[in-house]
Design a protein that fits this description.
CATH topology of the largest domain: Nucleotidyltransferase, domain 5
Strand content: 15-25%
Radius of gyration: 26 Å
Number of domains: 2
Length: 337
């Protein structure tokens, strides 16, 4: 057997070969050794060979391990601070685009007969697309998913956050004036996108008088985002094996997702059309009141509401100019120091 046909795990000592048992038997036959494929399988197991699949365990990150760990520590401290002052913490993320129609959905389901679906996943056969944007309320163990039908843009993401606050946040946290958002470092909530930050400033901070702090997970670390493993993973398990044949079906599976720990999910359809490629002008950007924090200012920042722009009504907390942010800013400066 050629050396390059063999590979192994340097830690456990397990080895494997890419040849099939029949190929190994044929190779041995060329040396005058006659054995069957089943005998080869038994011998390989005795020699600690095993059938293995690829494991996604090699992390490739654009930042150093020190920066990565540093950001995780910053997120941990920030989250503890908001828990201590009983302020809301939400984790946000968008799930992959789903084709709406009779298409195969990975997973298995108990049925008497297999569910027949289209033999090809052609977009032309779809009734539309579903773009789920999830907001997981850490303190309440509650998820809200807005299903978009056009594009996953920064405008869509910030509209979803504003809608969540209007529908649920201000009802659950009527006295708060601070909000922590945990987000990935890419996609519609990319911290490098002006539209993302500008949308938070105008739709959350100025409209509701909220001081919004955002902490982004390092690149390649989305699996640690609570919206991913506490919300979307449960939804995926709930609808596994069921074709997502309509928007009604998608919303129903989302809204009926529960866990033993008490997770509840709200689902809403957003039929607004969002254009791609929109830019935030310099004039609009100049209206953003942002405070960035060292040592990783691009991933950690607070947006401060403009007092004269904030509205006070029955659905938002009452604030005055001196109660918005000074105390919050001093506390956060101590956290990031």
């Amino acid at each position: 057997m050629l050396a390059y046909e063999t590979a192994g795990d340097p830690i456990s000592g397990l080895k494997w070969t890419r040849k099939t048992t029949q190929a190994v038997a044929d190779e041995l036959a060329s040396f005058g050794i006659q054995v069957s494929a089943s005998t080869v399988a038994k011998l390989l197991k005795e020699m600690d060979y095993s059938l293995r699949v690829n494991h996604k365990k090699r992390a490739h990150c654009s930042i150093s391990p020190h920066e990565r760990d540093e950001q995780f520590q910053i997120i941990k401290r920030t989250r503890k601070h908001f828990e201590r002052i009983s302020a809301p913490i939400v984790s946000v993320d968008s799930k992959k685009r789903e084709l709406v129609g009779c298409f195969k959905n990975p997973g298995k389901v108990w049925t008497r007969e297999p569910i027949c679906v289209n033999d090809h996943d052609f977009p032309s056969l779809a009734d539309g697309v579903a773009i789920p944007y999830g907001i997981y309320d850490w303190c309440a163990n509650e998820g809200t998913v807005f299903v978009g039908t056009s594009h996953d843009t920064a405008e869509f993401a910030t509209d979803c956050l504003a809608a969540w606050w209007r529908l649920y946040g201000c009802q659950r946290y009527p006295a708060t004036h601070e909000l922590l958002i945990l987000a990935d470092s890419g996609g519609s909530n990319d911290p490098r996108r002006r539209a993302w930050i500008y949308g938070l400033q105008t739709k959350l901070c100025n409209t509701y008088g909220l001081t919004v702090t955002v902490a982004h997970y390092p690149p390649g670390a989305s699996k640690w985002n609570p919206a991913d493993h506490r919300l979307f993973s449960e939804i995926s398990k709930h609808w596994a094996g069921h074709p997502l044949d309509s928007y009604e079906t998608i919303l129903n599976y989302m809204a009926t997702t529960t866990t033993k720990t008490g997770l509840q999910v709200h689902a809403h359809l957003s039929e607004t059309l969002y254009a791609t490629g929109l830019k935030t002008s310099d004039e609009e950007w100049s209206a953003v009141h942002i405070q960035r924090f060292e040592p990783q200012p691009k991933r950690n920042y607070t947006l401060i509401p403009v007092p004269e722009a904030a509205t006070c009504d029955s659905t938002s907390p009452t604030h005055d100019e001196n109660s918005y942010h000074p105390t919050a800013m001093e506390n956060l400066e101590l956290i990031f120091a």
